[in-house]
């Protein structure tokens, strides 16, 4: 089942009232090595997409954290 949501650059809130806030950080994330033709490395999941996927699939914050975390681990996360 897919839920409706409002978004801007990031997902904001879905029809169940699940809301996600984003705060930019200067933390260094670890991922697959970057190359000249892939400056982001092999990491494929960014917060823009992860927040929208979580709002499409989840009713609770726990579900959103688990969903975004598992995709980030599987696909690699970039910020």
What do you see in this structure?
α1 packs across α2. This protein has a two-stranded antiparallel sheet. The protein has a two-stranded parallel ribbon with strand order 3-4. β1 and β2 (11-14) form a beta hairpin. It is elongated and about 40 Å long. It has 79 residues and is an alpha+beta fold. The chain is 33% helix and 14% strand. It has 2 helices and 4 strands; from the N terminus they run βββααβ.
Helix-strand blueprint:
Elements: E1 5-7, E2 11-14, E3 45-46, H1 47-57, H2 61-75, E4 77-78
Parallel strand pairs: 3-4
Antiparallel strand pairs: 1-2
Helix pairs in contact: 1-2
Supply the helix-strand structural class: alpha+beta
Radius of gyration: 13 Å
- Strand tally, please? 4
What fraction strand? 5-15%
The rounded distance between the terminal residues' Cα atoms is 28 Å
Largest sheet: 2 strands, antiparallel
Question: Which stretches are poorly predicted, pLDDT < 50 over at least 5 residues?
Answer: none
What is the share of helical residues? 25-40%
**Strand order of the main beta sheet, please?**
1-2
Gross morphology is elongated
Can you give the mean pLDDT? 84
